[in-house]
Design a protein that fits this description.
The chain has a single domain, classed as Glycerol-3-phosphate (1)-acyltransferase (3-Layer(aba) Sandwich). It has 8 helices and 9 strands. The strands form 2 sheets. The chain has a 7-stranded mixed sheet with strand order 1-8-7-2-5-3-4, with helices on both faces. Strands 6-9 form a two-stranded parallel ribbon. The protein is globular, with a radius of gyration of 19 Å.
């Protein structure tokens, strides 16, 4: 049924490539694909992201937030609507949150999808990632996945544009999805207290960075409660997403996105 929904507006051509797998040999390399009890760390640009991932993997979808390591499980429809909604810096009051380790144990036969950027983008850069991935067990595979569209007019970086998304989706005869899957990343970090770490434990070479850059980076890590080893894991995922999408990590946050949306809304009034 999901393939029918994808095919109806002309989303039928899918260009799939997997790191380290030659074309035609995928059947012998199934371990390089997301499987039950693994995590997909996906780019987030369009409601079609969730629809495609649901058609392929039948996963459990989640919402991540920048200030917590817990996630909110949601339905496929909820994930699609999130792509049309505004950025949220914190979960709504009263919603149920759970860490990914618990969610994996409760759904051993399912893949778990995480959108670590927490909000949609235009696909031209990778935002700062949520620390939610740091609750993944060290033996669990995390697969960074990037999805891009041609033409790119079905991305929804600005919230509330439901009708323009539908129009752009239906006005083109065909849409191509470019799917790239990276090699699995593992959470090898040991949780620790950021404030108690020594400077030489940080994975940033402060001598190679301007003073303001090193200060901003360490300050950002402390604010999110992320130590240096944990930041390295997030960097691995972020760098993989950037490489797959042929874009750069821009370092912007959900707060920056909210400020942009506010300015954009005032401009078009």
């Amino acid at each position: 049924m999901l393939w029918v929904i994808l095919g109806a507006p002309g989303i039928w051509w899918i260009d799939l490539q997997i790191d380290g797998v030659k074309k035609g040999s995928l059947a012998r390399e199934k371990q390089r694909l997301p499987a039950p009890s693994s995590i997909i760390a996906s780019s987030f640009t369009s409601p079609v992201d969730a629809l495609y991932l649901a058609a392929i993997f039948d996963p459990v979808f989640t919402v991540s937030y920048p200030g917590t390591r817990q996630v909110r499980p949601i339905s496929l429809l909820g994930a699609m609507l999130r792509a049309l909604s505004g950025p949220e810096e914190a979960p709504p009051a009263g919603v149920k949150l759970v860490d990914l380790e618990t969610l994996i144990s409760e759904n051993p036969e399912s893949v778990i999808v995480v959108f670590p950027e927490c909000t949609t983008t235009n696909g031209k850069g990778i935002l700062s990632l949520s620390p939610s991935l740091l609750n993944v067990p060290s033996t669990t595979k995390i697969f960074p996945i990037n999805l891009r569209y041609s033409p790119p007019d079905i991305t929804t970086p600005v919230p509330g544009r439901h009708w323009s998304f539908i129009w752009n989706l239906l006005s083109q005869q065909t849409h191509c999805i470019r799917v790239r899957i990276a090699e699995a990343v593992y959470n090898t970090a040991k949780p620790g207290d950021v404030s108690s770490e020594k400077k030489d434990k940080y994975l940033v070479n402060f001598l190679d960075l301007p003073e303001e850059d090193s200060t901003d980076m360490s300050s950002g890590m402390r604010k999110r409660g992320v130590n240096a080893e944990e930041q390295k894991v997030l960097d691995q995922v972020g760098e993989a997403l950037a490489r797959l999408g042929r874009v750069k990590r821009v370092g912007l946050t959900v707060k920056d996105k909210a400020a942009f949306v506010g300015a954009w809304s005032k401009k078009i009034r």
